[in-house]
TrEMBL record:
<dbReference type="InterPro" id="IPR030395">
    <property type="entry name" value="GP_PDE_dom"/>
</dbReference>
<dbReference type="InterPro" id="IPR017946">
    <property type="entry name" value="PLC-like_Pdiesterase_TIM-brl"/>
</dbReference>
<protein>
    <recommendedName>
        <fullName>glycerophosphodiester phosphodiesterase</fullName>
        <ecNumber>3.1.4.46</ecNumber>
    </recommendedName>
</protein>
<keyword id="KW-0378">Hydrolase</keyword>
<dbReference type="Pfam" id="PF03009">
    <property type="entry name" value="GDPD"/>
</dbReference>
<keyword id="KW-0319">Glycerol metabolism</keyword>
<feature type="domain" description="GP-PDE">
    <location>
        <begin position="38"/>
        <end position="326"/>
    </location>
</feature>
<dbReference type="InterPro" id="IPR051578">
    <property type="entry name" value="GDPD"/>
</dbReference>
Length: 371
C-alpha cells in the first residue's frame, strides 16, 4: 500500500518575488508526479475525533496533534492528512475547525482561529510546559452542542513547523489548506496566507513528500501558481453538500478546476464517487489522480471496492483496521476470472472486473451510501 511521490513538472509560473516570497525560498522543479499503487492515508493523523460518538476509537488520540501523527507513523502508511490555518500574526497552525471554544466560570467563549495570535492559540488545551494550565478546550458538534474535548491520549496544539520538526521524517504530509466556506476571499488575502504556509514548507520540509489540497478552488489554483515543486489536489464534496460556488458541487466541475489550474488530482467524498463511477474514467483520462475521504472509508469492503475501481488511495480514520482489512482482502485468492497478475517488478496488480461485475458490487454498496 505504498504511495510514492515524484514531484511535479516545471510549469511556467509568475516570479516568486511578485507574491513577496523571500529570496531564500528555493523549491526544486522535478519532472513528473504520479501515485503508484494504492495508498491508505491517516485522517488528521491516526483519525479524527467525534466527541459524541459511542465508538471509543474516535476519542483515542487528540486529532491533528504530534502524538496522533507519530501514532499513525507506526503503521505502513506513507501519508497523513491534516488541516492548516494561519494566525493573525502569520503563523501556520494545525487545527480543523474555523472556531475554537473554551469555558470559563460556566461561560463558553468562541474565537475564530485566524483572529488569534500564535501565543493566544497555543493557550488552549494541554500545555507543553507541564507547570502551566491552559484554557479548557471545547468543541462544537455538528448538532450545535459545545462539548469538552475529552480524549484518552491528549496532546498540545501545534504549528506546521512543529510537525515538520517532530514527526517521523519518512511520513509524507497531505496539507489541507483550510478556509471558511462562508467567506469570499480576495486574491491578495489568499496569496498572503499561502505565502506564510509555503515559507514554512520551504524552510522545514527537506526531503519529506508533501501534497497540498483545498476545498477553496481559488486557493488551490493559487498555491499551484506560487510554486511548482509540490502537487496540488482539489477537494470536493461531489454533491453531498451543495455550495454557492458551483465549482464545488460535482466531480465534473472538479475536473475543470484541475485542468484550468494545472492541478494534479482530486480528493472526493467517497459517496460522490460511488454515485458517479463513470467520473473515474474521466478523471483518469484527464491524467489526474483520485483520492477519497468520508465515513465509508472506515469500512474495509468499501475501501477494497475503490481499489478494484482504480482509485489511487483513501483517507481513513481507523488506520490500523483498514490497513489490516485491505491487506487481507488484497491477498485473498480471488476467482479465476479475476485473478491478480504480477507486473515486471513482481508487484500484485489490481484484479480485472467486467463492467457488469463492478455494477453488481456497486449495487451491494447502495445501502451503505444511503446511511
Amino acid at each position: 500500500m505504498a504511495l510514492r511521490t515524484v514531484l511535479v513538472s516545471d510549469v511556467p509560473s509568475l516570479p516568486e518575488s511578485v507574491y513577496g516570497l523571500s529570496e531564500g525560498l528555493e523549491l526544486s522543479k522535478p519532472n513528473s508526479f504520479r501515485l503508484p499503487g494504492f495508498s491508505v492515508i491517516g485522517h488528521r493523523g491516526i483519525g479524527m475525533n467525534v466527541l459524541q460518538s459511542s465508538d471509543r476509537r474516535t476519542r483515542g488520540v487528540k486529532e491533528n496533534s504530534i502524538l496522533s501523527f507519530n501514532s499513525a507513523a507506526k503503521y505502513p502508511i506513507d501519508f497523513i492528512e491534516f488541516d492548516v490555518q494561519v494566525t493573525k500574526d502569520d503563523c501556520p497552525v494545525i487545527f480543523h475547525d474555523d472556531f475554537i471554544y473554551s469555558e470559563e466560570n460556566g461561560i463558553v467563549n468562541e474565537s475564530r482561529v485566524t483572529d488569534l495570535s500564535l501565543s493566544e492559540f497555543l493557550l488552549y488545551g494541554p500545555q507543553k510546559e507541564t507547570e502551566r494550565i491552559g484554557k479548557t478546550l471545547m468543541r462544537k458538534s455538528k448538532e450545535g452542542k459545545v462539548l469538552k474535548w475529552d480524549v484518552d491520549l491528549d496532546d498540545s496544539l501545534c504549528t506546521l513547523q512543529d510537525a515538520f520538526e517532530q514527526v517521523e521524517q519518512t511520513l509524507g504530509f497531505n496539507i489541507e489548506l483550510k478556509f471558511d466556506d462562508h467567506i469570499v476571499y480576495e486574491r491578495e488575502f489568499l496569496v498572503h496566507v499561502l505565502r506564510a504556509v509555503l515559507q514554512v514548507v520551504s524552510d522545514y520540509a527537506k526531503d519529506r513528500p508533501v501534497i497540498f489540497s483545498s476545498f477553496q478552488p481559488d486557493a488551490a489554483k493559487l498555491v499551484k501558481e506560487l510554486q511548482s515543486t509540490y502537487p496540488v489536489f482539489f477537494l470536493t464534496d461531489a454533491g453531498n453538500e451543495i455550495h454557492n460556488d458551483e465549482r464545488r458541487n460535482t466531480l465534473e466541475e472538479a475536473i475543470k478546476v484541475c485542468l484550468e489550474g494545472g492541478l494534479q488530482g482530486i480528493v472526493s467524498e467517497v459517496k460522490g464517487v460511488f454515485r458517479n463511477p463513470a467520473a473515474i474514467a474521466k478523471i483518469k483520462e484527464s491524467n489526474l489522480s483520485l483520492l477519497t475521504y468520508g465515513k465509508l472509508n472506515n469500512v474495509g469492503e468499501a475501501v477494497y471496492m475503490q481499489y478494484v475501481m482504480g482509485i489511487d488511495g483513501v483517507i481513513v480514520d481507523f488506520v490500523e483496521e483498514i490497513i489490516e482489512s485491505t491487506r487481507l482482502m488484497m491477498i485473498r485468492p480471488p476467482p479465476l476470472s479475476s485473478a491478480p497478475s504480477k507486473d515486471d517488478d513482481g508487484a500484485i496488480t489490481r484484479p480485472e472486473f467486467s463492467q457488469k461485475e463492478i455494477a453488481f458490487l456497486l449495487k451491494l454498496l447502495s445501502q451503505l451510501i444511503q446511511n
